[in-house]
Design a protein that fits this description.
about 350 residues, alpha+beta, 2 domains, 4-stranded antiparallel β-sheet, 9 helices, globular
């Protein structure tokens, strides 16, 4: 078996707190926060997603992800990855140090070609206006600003990116945060750089919208702890890719659900033989794929044919037909949630 499975060659054991969609325990009711609090805290929450009803469609199957996995499986990729690996027991999260996040956001803005065009256009218009008011000196000062923007663009796009890709450990720290399949727990960073830990089943999944600096709207999949209001972002996509968030939630649930086999995605292929439910599923021939399916997949075929067909299934799946099973475990879930 290719991959990183050598770090843990013993089959996992599930704890009693592990999430089982076939047996969701009764939970305490929600406190209704009231209309004012809902408007304040849930203003950008537009949809709550259903629990424990699956399409079986995965989102982590992009050609670049498949290519990276194939390279590592063939021994051609980087031997040491930044941060812990996604395995049969934990999916790590929140690895980037908070103090780096603003710098990375700034770097991404300056490195982006679209953002560069808008900044240069703005500076050019400013230069024209200033030249009428202050003459040549004003034009030169504005030109200097444009030169600085260009220098920052080339710096963040090339040397900064080159150094960062080769020294990812410098901006990454493992605080033990992640989604833990074997225990059914989630641990994540809060905005204060503290960590919060709670059972997976105590979170409500929401899609929220976010207006980006460049204008377009993006959508986020968030998990909000229903008893404290603490929340964490699972994934973010552009407005035209919103359906991917449904598949992202579907995939995450099945990863956490020990009554289901591991999602059949490249990153988890090396660990399928270490997860009890997956071993039973694959041993019964239900996977209907060879053990090294993703490691030996024809990447060109997947990129041109397989992946587009898969994405069309995600876009056309009737996501609103899935029944929310959590409503039977939380007495007033539908009345007291934020959206």
């Amino acid at each position: 078996m290719s991959g990183n499975a050598s770090q843990s060659e013993t089959i996992s054991e599930y704890s009693s707190s592990a999430f089982r969609s076939t047996d969701i325990p009764r939970q305490k009711p929600l406190e209704d926060p009231g209309g004012a609090i809902k408007a304040l805290e849930g203003g950008d929450l537009i949809e709550r997603l259903p629990w424990a009803a699956y399409s079986g469609l995965d989102n982590s199957l992009g050609p670049s992800s498949v290519e990276t996995f194939k390279e590592r499986a063939a021994g051609k990729g980087p031997k040491k990855l930044a941060g812990p690996a996604w395995t049969h027991s934990v999916s790590p999260k929140d690895l980037i140090k908070t103090r780096w996040q603003l710098l990375l956001l700034l770097a991404g803005s300056f490195a982006d070609y679209g953002m560069l065009k808008w900044m240069i256009l703005l500076v050019a218009l400013t230069a024209i206006i200033v030249s009428f008011r202050f003459g040549l000196n004003g034009f030169i000062d504005t030109f200097n600003i444009a030169a600085v923007i260009l220098l920052l663009h080339f710096f963040f796009r090339y040397p900064f990116t080159w150094v960062l890709e080769r020294n990812l450990d410098f901006i990454i720290t493992d605080l033990g945060c992640g989604y833990f399949r074997t225990t059914g727990m989630i641990k994540f960073r809060t905005w204060r750089e503290e960590t919060f830990k709670a059972p997976f089943i105590e979170f409500d999944p929401y899609i929220s919208y976010h207006i980006q600096p460049k204008g377009p709207v993006s959508y986020k999949l968030q998990l909000r702890h229903r008893y404290t209001g603490k929340q964490t972002v699972v994934a973010t996509v552009g407005s035209s890719n919103r359906a991917e968030l449904y598949a992202e939630w579907d995939e995450l649930q099945r990863y956490m659900d020990v009554s289901q086999p591991l999602p059949d995605i490249p990153a988890l292929e090396p660990y399928r033989h270490l997860d009890p439910t997956t071993v039973q599923h694959d041993g019964a021939g239900k996977r209907e794929r060879p053990a090294d399916y993703w490691a030996t997949l024809d990447l060109e075929w997947w990129e041109k044919e397989g992946y587009p067909v898969h994405m069309e299934k995600i876009r056309s799946f009737p996501w609103d037909s899935l029944e929310d099973q959590m409503q039977y475990s939380v007495p007033n879930l539908n009345e007291a949630t934020m959206a």
